């Protein structure tokens, strides 16, 4: 079975632009979470979605938004990109929202110039 | 509120020596605790987790960790280091499960000397 897949793997954007990152969870998993990992730091929680509804939100500005589709895949959108948004964005999926294990994808490396 | 502190941003041990990565947590509710490993340019892989029950938890690749409530610690150990263990390790805490919000520590880079 395929693991959590994220696309693209790398991308470069200019300040002020908008970006969309995509995540496909493991087949059968209904919960998706997003994390931002700035170089040299641990991941920080951005959002959790379960059954297409937002179940949790971290301390990120409104420029960050996400959604989950009927097939449980998810998109993370970031508007008005700042240099500080450069990071590895990780997606994690789990079977249900209370599952004790989340599986992480390999991430999308976003560079803002 | 929950938080995690990893003591030592970089740990270096000789091949075959004991690995000890330190983690202390803060939580107002019974925590779920995790150790993850991250290989270069890759996502996170779960090494082991503590939810309830036995306080000594065994994980993959010979790693284990002990939950000590009185010390609010969850240190990661491995009796004999292997070159392939060199990587970045993250301790993490969650209020309910790893499917919900996970709070990560800042990470410890483990280096193995030949």
Describe this structure in words.
The complex is a heterodimer of chains A (113) and B (114). Chain A has no helices and 11 strands. Chain A has strands at 5-7, 10-13, 19-24, 31-37, 44-50, 53-57, 64-68, 74-78, 87-94, 103-104, 108-112. In chain A, strands 2, 4, 5, 6, 9, 10 and 11 form a 7-stranded mixed sheet that branches. In chain A, a hairpin with a 2-residue loop joins strand 5 and strand 6. Chain B is mainly β and 114 residues long. Chain B is globular, with a radius of gyration of 13 Å. In chain B, 38% of the residues are buried. Chain A binds chain B through residues 4, 31, 33, 35, 40-45, 48, 55-56, 58, 90, 92, 94-107, 109, and chain B through 4, 32, 36, 41-46, 49, 51, 90, 92, 96-107.
Q: pLDDT average of chain A, as an integer?
A: 93
For the CA atoms, what is the radius of gyration of chain A? 13 Å
Tally of helical runs of chain B: 0
Q: What sequence of helices (H) and strands (E) makes up the elements of chain A? A: EEEEEEEEEEE
Described by strand count, sense and barrel closure, the largest sheet of chain A is: 7 strands, mixed
Keywords:
A: 113 residues, mainly beta, seven-stranded mixed β-sheet, four-stranded antiparallel β-sheet, 11 strands, B: mainly beta, six-stranded mixed β-sheet, five-stranded antiparallel β-sheet, 0% helix, globular
TL;DR of this structure?
The complex is a heterodimer of chains A (113) and B (114). With 113 residues, chain A is mostly beta strands. Helix content of chain A is 0%, strand content 50%.
């Amino acid at each position: 079975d395929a693991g959590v897949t994220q696309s693209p793997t790398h991308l470069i954007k200019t300040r002020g632009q908008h970006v969309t990152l995509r995540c496909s969870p493991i087949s059968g998993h209904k919960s998706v979470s997003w994390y931002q990992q700035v170089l040299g730091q641990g991941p920080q929680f951005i959002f959790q979605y379960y059954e297409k509804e937002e179940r949790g939100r971290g301390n990120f500005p409104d420029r960050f938004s996400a959604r989950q589709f009927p097939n449980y895949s998810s998109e993370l959108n970031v508007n008005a990109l700042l240099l500080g948004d450069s990071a590895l964005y990780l997606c994690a999926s789990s079977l249900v929202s209370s599952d004790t294990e989340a599986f992480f994808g390999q991430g999308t490396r976003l560079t803002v110039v | 509120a929950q938080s995690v502190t990893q003591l030592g941003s970089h740990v270096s041990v000789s091949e075959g020596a004991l690995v000890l990565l330190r983690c202390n947590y803060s939580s107002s509710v019974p925590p779920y605790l995790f150790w993850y490993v991250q290989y270069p340019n890759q996502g996170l892989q779960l090494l082991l987790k503590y939810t309830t029950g036995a306080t000594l938890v065994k994980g993959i690749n010979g790693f284990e960790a002990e939950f000590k409530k009185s010390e609010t610690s969850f240190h990661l150990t491995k009796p004999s280091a292997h070159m392939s263990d060199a990587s970045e390790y993250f301790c993490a805490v969650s209020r309910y499960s790893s499917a919900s919000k996970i709070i990560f520590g800042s990470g410890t880079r483990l280096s193995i000397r030949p």
